[in-house]
Amino acid sequence: MPKIYITYAITPDKELIISSYHEGTQSKSNAAQLARKAGVSLKDLKGINEDFPEASQSAIQNKLLELLTSITHGLDFNKVTYRGDLNLCTSNKAPTDCLFDGTLNRFFSGKEVHLILESANKEYVEEGIQLADRNGLTGAIIQTKTSSSDKLSKFYPAPEEQLNNNAVPIPDQSALAQDTVNIRDPQTFSNALAKIGVFNTANNSNNAGPTEEEKISPPRTTNKT
Question: Which terminal Cβ of the chain has fewer Cβ within 10 Å, N or C?
Fold first, then answer.
C-alpha cells in the first residue's frame, strides 16, 4: 500500500506550510525550502506518515481530510501553503480530483490558500493543467518537479476576494475636501477656498497688492477740451 508523508509547520506570520509526498525525503526537503523562506527553524518542522488507500476518489479525499484535520487541530493560522504530489501519493500517477476541485479551499474556508501541485512527468502536469482549467482552480501553481528535464508550469491567480485584502483603503470622508460649504461670513468663505487650494492662505486675499497687469499698464489720461 502506498505511503503518504506530510511535513508541516506554522510560521511566525501564522502561515501553515504543508509538504505532502509519497517519499519521506522529498517531503522533508520541500518543507525545508518553504520553512527557510518563511524564517522557520528546521527543528520546528513536524511530520506524520501513514498508509494511503488505493480505493475510490472519495476514499482518497476522506483520508486526506482526516490527516489534515489531525495536524491542524488547535493550530492558529490564517494562510496555507500546500505543496505536494499532484497524484496525492497514490500508485496512479494521474492527478487526484480532490486537489483540483476546490476541496482544500473549502476545508480551509476563511484562510488564504496557495497550492503547489507537481509531478516528475510532464504528461501528468498537462493533465493537471487541463483539470485545473475545467474546474476554475485559483491560487495554485501546477508544475513539473525541479528534477524534471522537461519543464512545464502554469500559474492560477488567487481569487478576487483574496486580492481585495491588499487593496488601498478607502479614505475617511472627513479628510477629503468637501464640495459644499456653509458660508456664514466672508472670512469663512476665504478659509474654505484656501482649504481646497484656490488660495494659498486666507490672508492673501486681504493683503493682495496690485496685479502684474496693473504694474505695467500706463496710467490713463484724459483729453482736455
Answer: C
